[in-house]
Write a structure and sequence with these properties.
By secondary structure, the chain is mainly β. It has a domain at about 20-65. The protein contains no helices and 5 strands. It has strands spanning about 25-30, 35, 35-40, 45-50, 60-65. A 3-stranded antiparallel β-sheet has the order 2-1-5, with no helix packed on it. Strands 3-4 form a two-stranded antiparallel sheet. The chain is elongated, with a radius of gyration of 19 Å. It starts with about 25 loop residues before the first strand and ends in an 11-residue tail after the last strand.
């Protein structure tokens, strides 16, 4: 018998490098709100502003999906 379990349906999906992916939003580290007003250079946040609490400290923001284990995962 032929063992077709090793045959794939096509080429593997292309992996998007971290530098090439688009950042949709940042998470404010002060109030936890998603923020859409920001500037980046590659993966580095150069400017950011939370319109809810007024936070503009770049080091207090995280890239949305990388915000950490404290996020709700429901």
């Amino acid at each position: 018998m032929c063992d077709n379990s090793r045959v794939t349906d096509g080429p593997p999906p292309k992996k998007v490098s971290r530098e090439d992916r688009e950042i949709d939003y940042l998470m404010c580290g002060q109030c936890g709100t998603p923020c859409y007003v920001f500037e980046t250079e590659g993966e580095t946040i150069t400017e950011a502003l939370c319109l809810v609490c007024g936070n503009d400290e770049v080091r207090m923001f995280n890239i949305g999906e990388e915000a950490g284990p404290d996020d709700d995962e429901r």
